[in-house]
Amino acid sequence: MQNGFPPSPGSRELKVGVVGCGVMGRGIVQIAALAGATVYLVDSREGASQAAREELRATFAKLVEKGKLDAAAAADAGERLVACKGLDELAPCHVVVEAIVEDLEAKKSLFGTLEGIVGSEAILASNTSSLSVTAIAAGLQHPDRVAGFHFFNPVPLMKIVEVIGGFLTRPEITEYMLALGRQWGHTAVLAKDTPGFIVNHAGRGYGTEGLRLLAEGICSVPALDAILRDTAGFRLGPCELLDLTGLDVSHPVMESIYRQYYEEPRFRPQVLTRQMLTAGALGRKVGRGFYRYGADGKKEAV
Ligand code: NAI
């Protein structure tokens, strides 16, 4: 890095842009602001960045009520949230993390636009779950400053982040992102730019194989979840996890990993999740996935 740019991960001078104020973006903003960075929020949906800022301030207030956060720290983090109207407001950012739709062209186009806005030394990071970081960076003026920065849902609770270097990424960029992830309170691990990185690759043996058990009629959804949750030590069974993430997010990830591995049979997604996606049974967010969810969020077997 040149001339102390960007500031060290713990510095209160650090300015971080987060593009996409959905589930993941809001989580990333939360941990970044609580760690002392000034965070600039952008979303293409009108009013979304302002709504995310207010929601996060309310979250900080709740954490104070529960005794999990100091009132001064909550006020400081709340003041560090800058709701932007457009990407051009990200000009002062040292690091921009994107958490927009999982679509290669959308991410490439966003980073292309950002290159014309941020300084040439600013780091561009992607929260992609399944796309190639090398592909996202390809065609940019400075592909060597692009890295994957892959968090898990819910970000404040799932304290792990994968840092991925693309083919051209400079080692000091991944080193900086590893240090940043740690400073934000997460275990940061370096992964090669391969389909699914570490977690979603290893997870194929868990989720995809679990779905195969269902497709072959070997067990029920609750039985599959209970076995893996209560005996194998996972916090959620595979169907519970898919319901939490939403098939609109996770089914394309399954398909993408399968395609990127040249259709290797062990990664093949199941027809079942494609049908559920088509039927709109996405999971918790619509009240129906592998389980049905009541207004109180309680699940029952279908
Ligand atoms: P989401 O749908 O909750 O949020 C995406 C947000 O980005 C929306 O607010 C949308 O308005 C905004 N957006 C879309 N295109 C945009 C653009 N061009 N410019 C600015 N804003 C734009 O999605 P979610 O779940 O937060 O996922 C975001 C990214 O994180 C995806 O790449 C996804 O694969 C990845 N991811 C998701 C995880 C999950 O469990 N939901 C886990 C890890 C990664």
Please specify the SSE layout and strand pairing:
Blueprint: E1 15-19, H1 23-34, E2 38-42, H2 48-65, H3 71-79, E3 81-83, E4 95-98, H4 104-115, E5 123-126, H5 133-137, E6 146-150, E7 160-165, H6 171-183, E8 187-192, H7 199-202, H8 204-215, H9 221-231, H10 238-245, H11 247-260, H12 271-279, E9 291-293, E10 299-301
Parallel strand pairs: 1-2, 1-4, 2-3, 4-5, 5-6, 7-8
Antiparallel strand pairs: 6-7, 9-10
Helix pairs in contact: 2-3
The structure holds 1,4-dihydronicotinamide adenine dinucleotide.
Can you give a write-up of this model?
Keywords: Oxidoreductase. One of its GO terms (biological process) is fatty acid beta-oxidation. This is 3-hydroxyacyl-CoA dehydrogenase. Residues 15-194 form the 3-hydroxyacyl-CoA dehydrogenase NAD binding domain. GO terms for molecular function: 3-hydroxybutyryl-CoA dehydrogenase activity; NAD+ binding. Strands 3-2-1-4-5-6-7-8 form an 8-stranded mixed beta sheet, sandwiched between helices. A two-stranded antiparallel sheet has the order 9-10. The chain has 12 helices and 10 strands. It folds into 2 domains: 15-192, NAD(P)-binding Rossmann-like Domain (Rossmann fold, 3-Layer(aba) Sandwich), CATH 3.40.50.720; 203-289, N-(1-d-carboxylethyl)-l-norvaline Dehydrogenase, domain 2. Strand 9 and strand 10 form a beta hairpin. It has 302 residues and is α/β, with parallel strands linked by helices. The chain starts with 14 loop residues before the first strand and ends with a strand. The chain has helices at residues 23-34, 48-65, 71-79, 104-115, 133-137, 171-183, 199-202, 204-215, 221-231, 238-245, 247-260, 271-279; strands at 15-19, 38-42, 81-83, 95-98, 123-126, 146-150, 160-165, 187-192, 291-293, 299-301. 42% of the residues lie in helices and 15% in strands. The mean pLDDT is 95. The longest helix is centred in the first third of the chain and has 18 residues, at 48-65. The structure holds 1,4-dihydronicotinamide adenine dinucleotide.
